[in-house]
Amino acid sequence: MRILADINNDEIHLERITGEDVYAGVIEATPYTVRRYRVTDAKKQLATLGCYFYGLADLESDLETAGSNSDVWPTPERWEAKLVKGSNVLYVMWYQEGGDPIEYLRTIVSGINFKERAVRKEEQDDFY
User: What is the enclosing helix (H) or strand (E) of 38?
Assistant: First the structure.
Protein backbone atom coordinates (compact mmCIF):
# COMPACT_ATOMS: atom_id res chain seq x y z
CA MET A 1 0.00 0.00 0.00
CA ARG A 2 1.44 3.35 -1.01
CA ILE A 3 1.53 6.25 1.41
CA LEU A 4 0.65 9.76 0.28
CA ALA A 5 0.70 13.03 2.24
CA ASP A 6 -2.19 15.50 2.34
CA ILE A 7 -1.99 19.27 2.79
CA ASN A 8 -1.40 18.79 6.54
CA ASN A 9 1.36 16.27 5.80
CA ASP A 10 -0.81 13.50 7.32
CA GLU A 11 -0.10 10.02 5.97
CA ILE A 12 -2.89 8.75 3.75
CA HIS A 13 -2.92 5.20 2.40
CA LEU A 14 -3.72 4.49 -1.24
CA GLU A 15 -5.84 1.36 -1.04
CA ARG A 16 -6.88 1.16 -4.68
CA ILE A 17 -6.44 3.00 -7.97
CA THR A 18 -8.22 2.18 -11.20
CA GLY A 19 -8.27 3.74 -14.64
CA GLU A 20 -10.60 3.30 -17.54
CA ASP A 21 -11.04 4.35 -21.13
CA VAL A 22 -14.33 6.22 -20.89
CA TYR A 23 -15.03 5.74 -24.59
CA ALA A 24 -14.98 1.95 -24.41
CA GLY A 25 -18.48 0.81 -25.27
CA VAL A 26 -19.75 4.26 -26.27
CA ILE A 27 -22.02 3.88 -29.25
CA GLU A 28 -23.15 7.44 -29.83
CA ALA A 29 -21.92 10.76 -28.43
CA THR A 30 -20.35 14.04 -29.45
CA PRO A 31 -17.34 15.78 -27.95
CA TYR A 32 -19.71 18.42 -26.56
CA THR A 33 -22.06 15.96 -24.85
CA VAL A 34 -19.08 14.16 -23.32
CA ARG A 35 -17.75 17.44 -21.91
CA ARG A 36 -21.17 18.46 -20.62
CA TYR A 37 -21.64 15.08 -18.94
CA ARG A 38 -18.22 15.33 -17.30
CA VAL A 39 -19.03 18.68 -15.72
CA THR A 40 -22.37 17.38 -14.43
CA ASP A 41 -20.76 14.21 -13.08
CA ALA A 42 -17.93 16.13 -11.40
CA LYS A 43 -20.42 18.39 -9.60
CA LYS A 44 -22.38 15.34 -8.47
CA GLN A 45 -19.21 13.73 -7.11
CA LEU A 46 -18.22 16.91 -5.25
CA ALA A 47 -21.66 17.00 -3.62
CA THR A 48 -21.31 13.41 -2.37
CA LEU A 49 -19.84 12.92 1.10
CA GLY A 50 -16.52 11.13 0.97
CA CYS A 51 -15.93 11.93 -2.70
CA TYR A 52 -13.65 14.48 -4.31
CA PHE A 53 -13.40 15.31 -7.99
CA TYR A 54 -10.21 17.05 -9.04
CA GLY A 55 -10.28 19.45 -11.99
CA LEU A 56 -13.85 20.79 -12.15
CA ALA A 57 -12.68 24.28 -13.13
CA ASP A 58 -10.64 22.79 -15.97
CA LEU A 59 -13.63 20.77 -17.19
CA GLU A 60 -15.88 23.84 -17.13
CA SER A 61 -13.28 25.89 -18.98
CA ASP A 62 -12.81 23.15 -21.56
CA LEU A 63 -16.58 22.94 -22.10
CA GLU A 64 -16.84 26.69 -22.62
CA THR A 65 -13.73 26.96 -24.80
CA ALA A 66 -14.49 23.99 -27.05
CA GLY A 67 -18.15 24.90 -27.49
CA SER A 68 -20.80 22.74 -29.08
CA ASN A 69 -19.18 22.65 -32.53
CA SER A 70 -15.86 21.15 -31.49
CA ASP A 71 -14.80 17.91 -33.11
CA VAL A 72 -11.89 17.39 -30.69
CA TRP A 73 -12.58 14.68 -28.13
CA PRO A 74 -11.51 15.20 -24.51
CA THR A 75 -9.01 12.85 -22.88
CA PRO A 76 -10.33 9.30 -22.55
CA GLU A 77 -8.58 8.40 -19.27
CA ARG A 78 -10.68 8.57 -16.08
CA TRP A 79 -9.01 7.62 -12.81
CA GLU A 80 -10.42 6.75 -9.40
CA ALA A 81 -8.56 6.18 -6.15
CA LYS A 82 -9.66 4.99 -2.74
CA LEU A 83 -7.72 6.66 0.06
CA VAL A 84 -7.93 5.54 3.68
CA LYS A 85 -6.64 6.61 7.05
CA GLY A 86 -7.82 4.55 10.00
CA SER A 87 -11.57 4.18 9.67
CA ASN A 88 -11.93 7.12 7.26
CA VAL A 89 -12.19 6.90 3.48
CA LEU A 90 -12.09 9.34 0.58
CA TYR A 91 -12.68 8.53 -3.08
CA VAL A 92 -10.82 10.79 -5.52
CA MET A 93 -11.63 11.02 -9.23
CA TRP A 94 -9.92 12.85 -12.09
CA TYR A 95 -9.22 12.84 -15.84
CA GLN A 96 -5.68 12.57 -17.09
CA GLU A 97 -3.96 11.98 -20.40
CA GLY A 98 -0.61 10.27 -20.24
CA GLY A 99 1.87 10.35 -17.40
CA ASP A 100 2.00 8.42 -14.16
CA PRO A 101 -1.41 8.42 -12.44
CA ILE A 102 0.10 7.74 -9.01
CA GLU A 103 2.37 10.76 -9.27
CA TYR A 104 -0.59 12.84 -10.47
CA LEU A 105 -2.61 11.55 -7.52
CA ARG A 106 0.25 12.44 -5.17
CA THR A 107 -0.02 16.05 -6.42
CA ILE A 108 -3.82 16.06 -5.98
CA VAL A 109 -3.65 14.66 -2.45
CA SER A 110 -0.99 17.17 -1.40
CA GLY A 111 -3.61 19.90 -1.88
CA ILE A 112 -6.46 18.13 -0.04
CA ASN A 113 -7.34 18.29 3.64
CA PHE A 114 -8.19 14.62 4.10
CA LYS A 115 -9.84 15.09 7.52
CA GLU A 116 -12.30 17.64 6.10
CA ARG A 117 -13.32 15.57 3.08
CA ALA A 118 -13.19 11.97 4.29
CA VAL A 119 -16.04 10.08 5.93
CA ARG A 120 -16.13 7.02 8.15
CA LYS A 121 -16.13 3.84 6.09
CA GLU A 122 -19.53 2.88 7.51
CA GLU A 123 -21.07 6.11 6.17
CA GLN A 124 -19.91 5.60 2.61
CA ASP A 125 -21.17 2.90 0.30
CA ASP A 126 -18.25 1.15 -1.35
CA PHE A 127 -19.26 1.96 -4.91
CA TYR A 128 -15.97 0.92 -6.50
Answer: helix 31-46
Q: Does the structure show a pLDDT above 70 at 125?
A: no
Dmax over CA atoms of the chain, in Å, equals: 48
26-34's contacts with Cβ under 8 Å and 24+ in sequence apart are 31/66, 31/70, 31/71, 31/72, 31/73, 31/74, 32/63, 32/66, 32/67, 32/68, 32/69, 32/70, 34/73, 34/74
Tell me the CA distances in angstroms from 80 to 9, 21, 24, 66, 101, one per residue in order: 21, 12, 16, 25, 10
Please compute Rg for the chain using Cα positions: 15
pLDDT in tens, 23-76: 988 889 999 999 999 999 999 999 999 999 999 999 999 999 998 889 999 999
Sign of CA dihedral 52, 53, 55, 56: negative
